[in-house]
Amino acid sequence: MELLAPAGNWDAFKAAINNGADAVYVGGKQFSARQSAANFDLQEMEKAVIYAHLRDRKVYVTVNTLIDNQEFAMVLDYLCQLAGIGVDAVILQDIGLLDAAHAVLPALSLHASTQMTIHSQSGAALLEKLGVERIVLARELTSEEIKIIHRSVPGIKIEVFVHGALCYGYSGQCLLSSIIGGRSGNRGRCAQACRLPYDLYRDQDKVQPPGQGKYLLSPADLCLIDYLQELKEAGVSSLKIEGRMRRPEYVAVVTRAYREVLDQLEQNPGHLTEFNSKERLSKIFNRNFTTGYFIEDNQEFMSTRSPKNIGVMVGRVEDQSRSYLTRIKLSDTVRKGDGLAIWTGPDRVQAVLIKDMIIDGKSLDYGTAGQTIEIKLEGPVSPSNPVYKTHDEQLLSEAQNTYTAKEESVIPVDAKVIMNQGEKMRLLMQCKGNCVEVVTAHQLEKAERQPLTEEILRQKIGRLGNTPFFLRNLTTSGDDNLMVPLSALNDARRRAIQDLQTKILLGSSVQQNYDDYHHYKRNYLRNPITVTNPIWPLLTVTVTSPEHAMIALQGGADRVYLTLDGLCTGKRVNMADFEKIQAGRTNGSGRIIPVLPRIHKLLDQFDYRKQFSTCIENVMIASWADLEWAREREFGVTTDYNMNVFNQYTLRFLTTRGVDLVCLSPELSLKQLTRFSDLSQAELVVQGELIIMQSQFCILGQTRGPGKPVCSMPCRQASYSLKDRRGYRFPLETDCDCHLYLFNSRTICMAEDLERILSLKPAALRIEARRSNSEELLTTVKIYREILDKLKSGYQPDFRNYIHQLQDVIDVPFTKGHYYRGVL
């Protein structure tokens, strides 16, 4: 298995390579999902590729954000430049960009980001058809589910995260940071709003989950170092460490720990001996460790006490004087320069850097388990307060040495010198199966004083300076007692090393014909969508029950999307329910279309496809996993907004594959929407509460889906919400598969902006009414129906009156979402 490490800057890159990474993933200055990292410009990227390839390592570049229309051509040029410098693969999220890259840069290796939320064999099979070589699977999969995907789609490589920070929600399905502060995780600027404190409310009462802190959406850190053999047996080909925002020392320690275990498993499969890899992982950074979803019976998933580094426990407070001189009984070693954190309450921590330490009246550099140390604090603590080490100076110093110390040359080179009088000297160099030959600028002559002996040749040719090479073997042939100017010999050596380095790099780089690229690019970008005749938009509504589907039609909806998974209702819609409401509707009253779940895992108990494949003609999909299935059955297909369609090329990708209607990303602004060449097959959300996060872990029942410990199902007994520091309330809902959904604290309302939206000529305008009661639903649909009908007839609606009517029935404040502010 490949060990894949992160790097957010050059020091971290060297730390990864020098501590045993087989490959390193880095981001550029743009289009990367960690825009807050230092990242690499093209010159630095080329330097990294050279450094890695000379050491037989690989470099992958993250281009894993959604791409705006204006950026699309620029990103393709960027991918072409990456191909030109020889990166080993690019990691993409935007399926429109993925399709374009496969078309215009066919030699470039493509990896699918975890932001694509691939969680089943159907999604993997689709991406394999699109030319993807490797998938970074969703982090919510178990060992058995990974195994099934590998067996079902053996032609695609599987990469999984094995260490580092976890997201509470499914990657690629989270709008929390975007909605709260306009910083989109899909655009690489996640503000980690899930690491903020929240209060949990049951109806109108604040409740505190037993044993939990206030960071209710903050998971523990993933650590699968004890399960590398199981990962291999599941078919995983690449082990990914999270951490492009981490310091180089973190990258060094974590990479080295996994390298040691992998090497030992390679030498003695199944016989892993004890060593301190996991201890070092705990010391460098942890929020407590979890095996995530990989091990099904693991329940230690959250770290609600603190979203920061907890460290490792090293003792407890014994007592403290009035001057804050504090005695701590140690349970582990501490040294000068270490950082300590004393927990004085559930959410209160006092931190100190050890500058001086007294043991038995003496100032010492370190203390060990069993000893009592005295240190000065700046505030009060109490006896028995736990003490944690959050900064291990020795560990950090050792890690720093791996990327700051002068590097030894590590790549052996063999040289041969051929000398014949009257001819130019020939220098041949061999390395890694590559051979180059150069000749000196001067001819060889009889030496009058100092001939070129083997000793002198070894000394001069072996002077390889700052290169990663060292001279291993030197052989000579030809005449003796000859010489050339030493400057000519040095010049030949430099040219030979340069040629050898280039040859090694060319052997592993992607060579792209730029003329072909520009031809392919022009063809791909030309006429992204065939413009159709302008149409008056459909009014569509998303609901969660058959009863609400009928109410929506009664209110004037042209089309109703009925979710099947029991979201908000606790009751799945089965085939009998669906056939009953289809039969009960009057002619011309609209169509009711079932909505497949966003997440349908392989081992889930209910098979939505099997239930509905024989009784429907149309379907809404919310996952890449269902695209091919729907096409094969020739259903009319609509896509939901969570599929992150952010540009006209992704829109074209879907419509040319049989999709009738595409709901665009709610992160698009009106300004961005005007840059689409045609929206005649596009749908826009104009009213309702957005789902801004979906999680496999339920903080209400502290369960993670079917088969887990029995849950009392509090979600069926009351209404729950999270309240943030600014007082905003975010409703929580669940479905019958025990997924948890976080809804926005505000309701989008674009009623008074419909004229501007209609000028874009979209195919449909959607009302999101998954959480609406019957009165809200009927009133909202009727108002939008009236406004659209009046505008179609040439009448000017009284928008202010309609807004007041909506506010009378909807008790959630209104927002215009991202239509005017957009996202970063």
Keywords:
824 residues, alpha/beta, 8-stranded parallel barrel, 23 helices, globular
> Radius of gyration in whole Å, from Cα?
31 Å
Helix content: 25-40%
Content of β-strand: 15-25%
For the largest beta-sheet, the strand count, sense and barrel status come to: 10 strands, mixed
**Could you report the average pLDDT, rounded to the nearest whole number?**
92
Taken from the alpha-carbon principal axes, the silhouette is globular
Distance between the termini: 37 Å
Uncertain segments are 508-512
Specify the number of helices. 23
- Total DSSP E strands: 42
Secondary structure category: alpha/beta
What would you note in describing this structure?
The chain is α/β, with parallel strands linked by helices. The chain contains 23 helices and 42 strands. The strands form eight sheets. Strands 29, 30, 31, 32, 33, 34, 35, 40, 41 and 42 form a ten-stranded mixed sheet that branches. Strand 3 (58-63), helix 3 (72-85) and strand 4 (89-92) form a beta-alpha-beta unit. Helix 15 (546-555) packs parallel to helix 22. The longest helix has 21 residues, at 486-506. Mean pLDDT is 92; it is low at 508-512.
